[in-house]
UniProtKB/TrEMBL annotation:
Pfam families: Abhydrolase_3. Residues 108-166 form the Alpha/beta hydrolase fold-3 domain. The keyword Signal applies. Keywords: Signal. SUPFAM superfamilies: alpha/beta-Hydrolases. This is Alpha/beta hydrolase fold-3 domain-containing protein.
Amino acid sequence: MICKWKGVVLAVMPTLVFAYESSLPETISDQAKNHMQTMPDPLTLKTYPAADDVTGWDAINQALEERLRPNNQAVIKRFEPTITNKIINSVPVIEVLPKGWKDNGKVMVYAHGGAYTRYNAQMTLLRCIPVANETGLKVISVDYTTAPKGNYQTITDEVIAVFKALNPA
């Protein structure tokens, strides 16, 4: 969902909430109930690698990238953006320009999700390309260093470095 707040364009991604109760609320549709009953119990899901297991986390991200590649390609084909890998203030980013982009001096900075451990800017093009298309803005997707190669401070510093380079004061 795209919305504006105090002149700032925000992209709000809906969050799924899973219920693992024996009875589901009567206020939801049968379709939703059926879907929720197929969701796995989080206690039975496979465990993640150790915090310092770089190889393990790389394997998770590689599997995610392979799974997301067809969706990313479909979004690129549908919206036909211009995508450029760049370095801004020593931080890798992907610049996304919507089809027919006209420079209005505004830029949206996108920091992908993933709990500091998963995804990268390339994997999440399927999220930021539609935002660029809907808003008409240049989107800079920060390809920050995920854990365990970096930590929350590394990520914060990298995102701030991009903001500073884009808006020197």
